[in-house]
Amino acid sequence: MASSAAIVGGPSAATAHDATAKAVPQGADLEFDLGIPTPDTVEKLYDTMDFQRAVQGYLWAVPIVGMEGARRMLVDNAEARSGDLVLVAGYRDVSVMLGSNVTTPYVFAWFDLTEGPIVIDYPEGATAGSLIDWWDRPLIDVGVSGPDGGKGAKFVVVGSGA
């Protein structure tokens, strides 16, 4: 006795680009024999798990790939070294960064912490920014929005191995 089940999901990648294709929920064609998945169903389920893992791998990689793109832009376009501040403005420079826009000037730097911690002496003034890690997670705000309230501060940045 065969039965079927559905896994909630969208159309496959192949049908997503074909306007004439009928959308079929992912897994709608799974079959079971006496409640046990058939060999074809087992293969489809493993394919689905592989696809889901690939999507999650991509989503997890986006932040670090974006940060490396920004670092390479600093090195390639401004010959920046670790700790150099670079003013980034205009389409050519900003277009390589995820989530940026061409009307906002940015000041960027990247820090190589393999040789030990660094001290950032952030100046007083009406500025605002963030120190973020390679996964694009905020560590601390600096300037007006930071703990110094725009009065200037020293920040010690320590790598994960310290």
* Mean of pLDDT: 84
Helix tally equals: 3
Bin the strand percentage. 15-25%
Q: Write down how many β-strands occur, each being a DSSP E stretch of 2 or more residues.
A: 9
Uncertain regions spanning at least 5 consecutive residues: 1-11
Query: How can the largest sheet be summarized?
Result: 3 strands, antiparallel
Q: Spatial order of the strands in the main sheet? A: 1-2-3
Shape: elongated
Rounded to an integer in angstroms, the radius of gyration calculated over CA atoms is 24 Å
State the share of residues found in helices, binned by percent: 25-40%
Structural class: alpha+beta
Task: Measure the end-to-end span.
Answer: 62 Å
SSE pattern: EHEEHEHEEEEE
Task: Fill in the keyword field for this structure.
single chain, 162 residues, alpha+beta, 3-stranded antiparallel beta sheet, two-stranded antiparallel sheet, 9 strands, 30% helix, disordered N terminus
Provide a descriptive summary of the structure in words.
By secondary structure, the chain is α+β, with helices and mostly antiparallel strands. It has helices spanning 13-16, 39-78, 91-94; strands at 2-5, 30-33, 36-37, 86-88, 106-108, 118-122, 128-132, 138-143, 153-157. A hairpin with a 2-residue loop joins β2 and β3. The longest helix has 40 residues, at 39-78. The N and C termini lie far apart (62 Å). Mean pLDDT is 84; it is low at 1-11.
What is the strand and helix layout of this fold?
Blueprint: E1 2-5, H1 13-16, E2 30-33, E3 36-37, H2 39-78, E4 86-88, H3 91-94, E5 106-108, E6 118-122, E7 128-132, E8 138-143, E9 153-157
